[in-house]
Amino acid sequence: MAFTITTESPLTPEGRALVEASQAALLEVYPPEECFSFSAEELAARNTQFLVARDGGQPVGCVALVDEGLYGEVKRLYVDSVRRGQGVGGVLMDDLERAARDIGLGWLLLETGAALEAAVALYRRLGFVERGPFGSYPDIASNLFMEKRIGFSLRGPQGAEQESLA
Asked: Which pLDDT score, from 0 to 100, does residue 146 have?
C-alpha cells in the first residue's frame, strides 16, 4: 500500500483526532501519571514537525519530530488500530528520520513503554537501541528510553564528543 506523508498542523480537526486517539491508546495501557505525551497545542510549537500518514486522503497515523538542538525527539507515533501491521509506522518513521537529517540532527531519541511491544519491536527493527533517561523524564519502571544515530553530529545527545557517521 502507498501512503502519503505530509507535514500538517496538529490543531486541525483531523490532527486533534489523531492526537486524541493516540492518548486514548496510551491510557488503555498506562495510568495518566505514566503518560508523557504532548498535547496538540504542544505539538504545534515552532520546533516541531507533525507528520500525518494518509491513505486515499484519510488520516491513518501520525508522528512528531521535536528539534531539541542536539537531537530530535520522536513523539506521538500512532497508527489507527485498523491499519496496524500494514507498514504505516515504518513509513512515518522513515519520513521522520529524513526530516531530522534534513535539519542537521544526528540523533533521534524517544521515550516509550516496554508494554507497547509492537512499537518497541518497530523501533528495534529501525535501529534504535536502549539508552538511559534523557530530558526531564522520570526514571520509572514503565519507561523505556531509546536512541538512534542517524548522521553526522559534533556532539551526541548528552553533549559527549562524537565521530561522524559515514
From this structure: 97
Q: What is the mean pLDDT of the chain?
A: 90
Q: What are phi and psi of 149, to 5 degrees?
A: -85, 130
Collect all residues with Cβ–Cβ distance below 8 Å to 125 and sequence separation of at least 6: 90
pTM over 0.85: yes
Question: How confident is the model over 26-41, as a mean pLDDT?
Answer: 88
Closest CA relative to residue 120, chosen from 86, 92, 97, 143? 143
* Domains within the chain, CATH numbers bracketed: 4-149 (3.40.630.30)
pLDDT at 36 (0 to 100)? 86
